[in-house]
Amino acid sequence: MDIRYDRAVIPLSDTPLKPRMPTNSPPLDDAAIPSAAAAEEPATAPSVLIVDDEEGIRNFLSRSLERRGWRVTTTGSAEDAALHLERHCVDLIILDIALLVHATSAVVLISSIIVHVYAALWVQGTIRAMVEGVVTHGWARKHHPRWYRETTGKKV
């Protein structure tokens, strides 16, 4: 089963993930390394950190994941998440998806504006139309036939 949230899909597998050791932890001695049989069964449930500024979304995700056996920690800010990650290792981090969607949308919008401006450079008469506000009848007929019909009353 998956949770769908703001166009992102969070897979919820039936097999729990094995917890990882934090990268800043001291090396283990040979006595502390579990046997192969013990390594097959995870000692604890996988952990997830949910970072979202909307409490309702945090609560919804938290309840959904806890029902499936995850250990859930929630926070409302990136600063709190960074503090948590300094002290604890988590298997999965779910960030505020809306921020990612908005940032991606902004990049797409700005890119389309830039492409639109540069495309105008290759169409003869377009720059003059933007700078001076004047176009020739031929340019208007070719690039904006409806506007041409409305202003001149002639058919294209």
Can you give a write-up of this model?
The chain has 156 residues and is of the alpha/beta class. The chain has seven helices and five strands, in the order E-E-H-E-H-E-H-E-H-H-H-H. The protein has helices spanning 36-40, 55-67, 78-87, 97-121, 126-132, 137-143, 145-152; strands at residues 2-5, 8-11, 47-51, 71-75, 92-94. The strands form two sheets. The protein has a three-stranded parallel sheet. The chain has a two-stranded antiparallel sheet with strand order 1-2. Helix 2 (55-67) links the parallel strand 3 and strand 4. Helix 6 (137-143) packs across helix 7. Residues 1-9, 17-22 and 25-41 have low confidence and may be disordered.
